[in-house]
Write a structure and sequence with these properties.
The chain is α+β, with helices and mostly antiparallel strands. The chain has helices at residues 13-22, 37-47, 67-74, 111-130, 145-148, 199-202, and strands at 60-64, 97-104, 134-138, 156-165, 171-175, 185-186, 192-196. Helix 2 crosses helix 4. It comes from Olsenella porci.
């Protein structure tokens, strides 16, 4: 059984269910509450226990916490493909840390390495949420970012980029019956809505 954060006690199925439900994609953060390097390293420390194909453990992680480099990362990726008229979070609402999940150069063409990266990314997102943090899993980043961060020079490439911070937006789940299909959307109050298919629709 999983263990509840900080308690050393088994986490019930209901508690884990609630953790997964609360671990949404967050795109707006409280920039005044900065994530520490120790917190980011703690998330990576949790992710290193996640499974990898054939237990190869080829993933590497690059942690970004200094404000200047965080700002550079924020300017090097997209935010929400479905919000075509939104340029991303404004100053004061940007993430305060990043974790680049990396693989050996060329790993981006490997299905199993991308699967490894996805498992690690979701593990980090769940761990972050358990600590009151949140984040966004990003695939649309500039290829040059790996050079800028000194990652490619070490023989690695970025497989997925994780923006981390203290969430500053309300995200709600709803059934796919709101007229938006499966597209996420925001209402006039800025609440972010995420439609989800019901269980019966997923069973084949």
């Amino acid at each position: 059984m999983a263990c509840a954060p900080g308690r050393g006690m088994p986490m019930t199925g209901g508690e884990f269910h609630d953790l997964v439900r609360s671990s949404r994609t967050f795109r707006r953060f409280d920039e005044g509450s900065r994530v520490t390097r120790e917190q980011l390293l703690g998330l990576v420390d949790t992710a290193r226990f996640a499974p990898t194909g054939n237990n190869t453990q080829l993933l590497r992680f690059h942690v970004v916490d200094d404000p200047a480099t965080v700002e550079h990362c924020a300017a090097s990726h997209g935010w929400a493909a479905l919000f075509r008229d939104w340029d991303g979070p404004k100053p004061g609402e940007r993430p305060t840390g990043y974790i680049a999940v990396c693989g050996p150069t060329g790993a981006g063409g490997s299905a199993i390495r991308n699967l490894d990266a996805g498992i690690a990314a979701q593990t980090i997102m769940l761990a972050a949420r358990s600590e009151g943090l949140g984040g966004c899993i990003i695939k649309s980043f500039k290829p040059s970012l790996a050079d800028d961060l000194g990652i490619s020079q070490q023989g690695y490439e970025i497989l997925v980029l994780l923006a981390i911070g203290v969430p500053a937006e309300r995200v709600v789940l709803e059934e796919v019956d709101s007229g938006h299909g499966t597209h996420y959307w925001r209402d006039d109050q800025g609440t972010h809505h995420v439609p989800k298919l019901p269980l019966d629709d997923l069973l084949i």
